[in-house]
What we know:
This protein is α+β, with helices and mostly antiparallel strands. About 55% of the residues lie in helices and about 10% in strands.
Amino acid sequence: xxxxxxxxxxxxxxxxxxxxxxxxxxxxxxxxxxxxxxxxxxxxxxxxxxxxxxxxxxxxxxxxxxxxxxxxxxxxxxxxxxxxxxxxxxxxxxxxxxxxxxxxxxxxxxxxxxxxxxxxxxxxxxxxxxxxxxxxxxxxxxxxxxxxxxxxxxxxxxxxxxxxxxxxxxxxxxxxxxxxxxxxxxxxxxxxxxxxxxxxxxxxxxxxxxxxxxxxxxxxxxxxxxxxxxxxxxxxxxxxxxxxxxxxxxxxxxxxxxxxxxxxxxxxxxxxxxxxxxxxxxxxxxxxxxxxxxxxxxxxxxxxxxxxxxxxxxxxxxxxxxxxxxxxxxxxxxxxxxxxxxxxxxxxxxxxxxxxxxxxxxx
Length: 363
């Protein structure tokens, strides 16, 4: 399942998720083997394409929706599905609007959604299916059991991605302390972070569609993704590396690099040289072996009570992690905005990272 990027569709999926009154009403219609055509929202455009029917303006309840669906015609509810405004209306959208649907109800739904910009829901008795139309987009709802099965499988995959990301991140930290980082090490971390983001977004889509049935999945997702340094931080940490290596004239912007990463195909993302190219390096196997040095932003992110602005000021002052590692408390206090307490916190934090690296090396 591809995560939806349409905010209207995402909001509609939340409104029809299991546990909501609207979803209960739709399920009642489905079990009763009757069809339905429901417009979520009402404005002048909707009013203009409505013909006949009844203006009822009553409180929304699932049983009422089920009973009203027994009549021919469409149903119009307000935006948040708390009131049923019209029932048994004939919807007459512009017939010139293109549609790739075949059934009368679905063709009408797609045209109404396109013309009004509002979500339209159809329930098919013969197909036993619920579909949502947002503009020209059609999204078919699936049963909870199928979504849960795929979400569980995706969580298993996410767990493997999480383990591998932890491994390459730990290796990067060790190499940063030892000043032996290569482009390959950085690209591996950024690659795994992007892989984790993609599978996390997919699971988030499942959680959205599961509603109250997705609480456990959501908790596991938060546990697996809630402890990362942002990919943007890693990219910013090595922003000058490509410039210093003569591969770029200006340092890559984190936001631009993240957008470009998101557009990489799955095949390109697997290739570390493609990821390195996004970071500003040449897309070649030789470039992966180039030595690079971070500013120290990522490691400083692990130091408690240190704001991002202070981290950026410190790294700009010393120009590289190795210079920062060699700095004394007195050196650190010469940085604007860094007092003695902050300097000691930085010095102690970096010392702990160095000690942990030595311990892990000789285990």
